Amino acid sequence: MELLNEIWQTARRNKLRTGLTGFAVAWGIFMLIVLLGAGNGLINANMTQMNRFLSNSMVVYGGETSMPYQGMQEGRWINLKARDIDISSEEFQTVIDEVGAQYRTSGMVSNGQQYLTGSIAGVYPNHIKIDKVEMLQGRFINTIDINGKRKVLVISNKQAKELKTHVGQYVKVGNFAFKIVGIYKEQENGRADMFSAYSTIKSIYGAKTDDAGRIEFTFHGLETEGDNEAFEKEYRQRINTAHQAHPDDESAIWLWNRYTQNLQMQKGIGIIRTALWVVGLFTLLSGIVGVSNIMLITVKERTHEFGIRKAIGAKPWSILKLIIIESIIITTIFGYIGMILGIAANEYMDATLGHTKVDAGLFKATMFLDPTVGLDVCFEATMVMIIAGTIAGLIPAFKASRIRPIEALRAD
173, 107 in Cβ contact below 8 A? Predict the structure, then answer.
C-alpha cells in the first residue's frame, strides 16, 4: 500500500503530464480493440457465406477445352455425362463418400392465380447435406423419389407464401402437377431454388440430351492442400480422358473444392488478424514511448530523492521495482480505459452497421457481422499492456537504480 500511495502522490503532482501520457496509451489500446472488432466483423460475414456449404464437398462443372488433344482442337465444350457419375462413385471409393448430381431448368410454377418463375434443380438426396438445406416442414427429396421419378417439389418458405400453398398440395410446373413435399428456409444471401428428384427433372427436361448437369459429392481423408491437389489432379485426368480431353487441361472441367476454399479462407483470416494486431501494436507503441518519457522525467526530478534513499540503505532493486510498477500501473489503468471505450465503440458498430446486407439483385450478402472481440482478445490486450508497461519502465528504472548517492546529492 505504501508503494501504491507513493505512486499516487507522484501522479497527483504531475496530473497533466500523466493524463496526456495515459491518453496515448488509452488511444493505442482503443485503436487495437476497434481494429480487431472491425476485422472480426468482416471475417464473421465471410465465414457465414462459407458455412452455407459442407466443407468436405466438391462440385464438378463441365467446361471448355483449352488444349488440343488427339487431333481435336481446343475450344470444345465438355458436358458431364451419366458415366462420369458412375466413374466418380465407382473408381474413387477410397475418397468419395456420396455422389449426387444436379440438373437445372427454369420454369413457371403456379397455384391457381398465383404463380412464380424460378430455377428448378433436380437433385439427389445428399444435396440437403452438401448445401445445408434447412427444412421447416415436410421432407427433402429421397431415394424413393429418385427411383420412382416422382413429381415432387421442395420449395422455400417465401415461395410457399407467394404461391399460397403448403405441404401436401399440388402445384403446376409447366403442364405437370407436382406435389409439395417439403418447405425449406430460404437464405437471404443466396438464390432460392425449387428442388425435385434428379431423375424426374432429367427425364422431363433433359431426355433429349446426354448432358448430366453438375456432379456433387462428399469426400473424406483429404486433410491438406497437397492431398486435395493430388486428388483433384487424378480426378481431373480421369474425367478428361473419358471425354478425350488432354489429361492436364484444367479448363475441360471445373472443380469447386469447398475444403480447399476453406483452407485458403482460414489462411487469409490469419493474415488479416496478424496485420490488424501489427497495426494496433504500432499505434500502441506511441503510448509506450510516452510512458517511458514521463518515467525518465520522473527519474530526473527525483534524482535527489533516490540518492538519499540509497544513502540510507535502499537496495537498487527497490528503486527498480518502484519505477517499473509505476509504469505498469499507468499503462494498465489508461489501457483499460481505452479497452472499455473500444468495446463500447464495437458495440455501437454492431448496433448500427452489424448485420448490414448488400442487395445485389440476385442475392443479398451480409458484409459486416458481429464486429466485436472476445474475452481471449481482452486477456491478450491485458498481457500486452503489462508487457508494454514493463518495457516502458525498464530504461528509466535502470537509470534510477544506478544513481550514485554522492552524485545525486551534488545534483541538488
Answer: yes
**Cell representation of residue 17:** 503530464
Q: What stretches of 294-363 adopt beta strand conformation (E)?
A: 356-359
Q: What is the pLDDT of residues 294-314, one digit of tens each?
A: 777 777 777 777 777 777 877
How many angstroms separate the Cα of 368 from the Cα of each of 219, 232, 352, 365? 31, 33, 10, 9
Q: What does the alpha-carbon distance between residue 38 and residue 211 come to, in Å, rounded to a whole number?
A: 46
Q: List pLDDT tens digits, range 112-166.
A: 999 899 899 999 999 999 999 999 999 999 999 999 999 999 999 999 999 999 9
Indicate whether 101 pLDDT > 90.
yes
CA-CA distance, 52 to 184, in Å (whole number)? 14
Tally helices (H) and strands (E) across the chain. Answer: 13, 12
Task: List Cβ neighbours of 258 (8 Å cut-off, separation of 6 or more).
Answer: 50, 53, 54, 55, 56, 57, 58
Q: Which residue has the cell 495515459?
A: 22
